[in-house]
Design goal:
This protein is α+β, with helices and mostly antiparallel strands. It contains 17 helices and nine strands. A four-stranded mixed sheet has the order 1-2-7-4, with helices on both faces. The radius of gyration is 23 Å and the shape is globular.
Length: 492
Amino acid sequence: MSIADPVTILSIILCTFVAILFYGRKRNIYHNFPPGPTPLPIIGNLHIMDMKRPYETFHKLSEKYGSVYSIRLGTEKIVILSGYETVKDALVNHADVFAARPKVPIFEALFLGHGILFSNGESWKAMRRFTLSTLRDFGMGKETIENRIGEESDCLVENIKSRKGKPFENTAILTAAVANVIVYVLLSQRFDYDDPIILKLLNMINENTKLVGCPRSMMYNAYPSVMSWFPGVQKTVVKNRNELHKFVREIFTEQKKDLDVNDQRNLIDKFLVKQQEEKPNPELYFNNTNLVVLVTDLFAAGMETTSTTLRWGILLMMKYPHIQRKVQSEIEKVIGSAAPQAAHRKDMPYTDAVIHEIQRFGNIVPTNLPHATTQDITLQGYFIPRGTHVIPLLTSVLYDKDYFKKPKEFYPEHFLDASGNFVKNEAFMPFSAGKRSCAGENLAKMELYMFFVKLLQNFTFQAPPGATLDLTPAVAFTCMPMSYMMCAVPRT
C-alpha cells in the first residue's frame, strides 16, 4: 500500500470509525459458542488471515481450535466446520438447520437474493425443485445429454488438432466447450469457440469469479457500508452482472414471442410456461427476476467448476506423465478408437480413480458456498444460534488425513483397492452435501468423464520445452490453476 494513496487512507480511517461505533454489539453473548482466535477491536481476525487464500488459514486454525470454531472478520462472527465427520454431521444429519444462505455483501450484490445459489426460503425451494425437474427432463444423466456432450467433445478435439501440437493456453476453449453443454439445456444454442458473444460472457464470469475471491472482496464484506463509497470490486461485479442479465433478458424476451406450451425447447421455455401457470400471481416465484438470475446462476456454475476441473486434469497429466500413460492404456484396452460412452466408465477403474483424484486434489470450491443456520442448534457440543454465518470447509473434507492417505499429494490410489478396483471414499465431497448440494452434480460427472477420456484418447499432453509446471492455485473464489501453456500431441 502506498502512503500517498489518499483513497486507501481515507477508507481505513472511515472503516475504523464505523467499526468503533459498532464494536461491542457483536461480542460473544452466547454461552458455549464455538471458540476461536482472540479478535482485535475493529478488524477482528483479519490480521491473521491469508487474504488471497483464506481457506488455508481456516484449515490451519482447525488444527488448534478443533473441528467447530469461530472467527471474526471485521465485526461479523463466522463458524467454521472442519473435517469430514463434522461437515457431514451438519450438512447431512442436520440438513434443514444448515440449509440457509447468509447475507454476504458481495454475493448480495451479485445474486440479488434470487435464483438458486443465494436465495432462501420458499423461493429457493421452488427454484431448486424446478431446476432438478427440468434437468431431468432434458436428459441429465441420460442418453440425450450424453450425445450432446459427445458431439461437443468432437468439436473440442478438432479445435485442438488445429493447433498442430504447438503451445497454447487452454482456458478459453475448454470453458467454451463446457459452457456449450449447459447453453444447450438453457437456450437450445451452441456457440463457436471464437464467437465474440460467448467470449464476452465467459470473460465476465471469469472476472467475477476472480474478484469475489480477492482480498478487496473480503474487505468489502467486512465493511460494506464504508467500502461502497469508493471504487472497488463490487462496482465491477455489478457491472458484469448487469451485462449478463441483459443478455439473458433479451433471450427470453425473444423466446416469449413463439412460446409453444406443447413444444418446450429448453429451460427458459419451461420457466415461461410455469410463469403462465402461476397466474394470477406471476410475482410469487416464477417472475422475470428469478428467471434472469436462475439462468445466470446455472450458466456460470455449469461451466466454471467443470472447466476448471478439466484444466487441473490436463495440468496434472502433464505433471505426472506416468499416470497419463496408464489412463491412455486403459482407454485403449476398454474403448480403443470408438467414441467414449458413459457405460464404459464401470470398466475403467483407474481412469475413474484419476478423475476423482483430480476433483479431490483440485479442491475446486475450497470454502464451499456459505451456509447459515435456520434455527438454534448444538453441534459437537457447541451452541450455534439461528442466523449464524457458517462455512463448511470443503478443503478440510477433501484433504482429511483420516480418509486420504496422502492428502497433499496427487494420488489416484485414494480411490483404488489393492487389486486395482475402484472404491468409493465417503469423504469425497466436491459437490458439497445436503439440501444445498450442487443441483448439476450428475451432469458435471458425465461431462468430466467424457471430455477427459476423449481428450486423452486423442492427445498426449506435454509442457512446452523449458516450461515449469506450477500447481499453486490462482487467487479466485474457485480454486483454479494459474494460466499455463500446453502442447497437445496427437496420438496415432
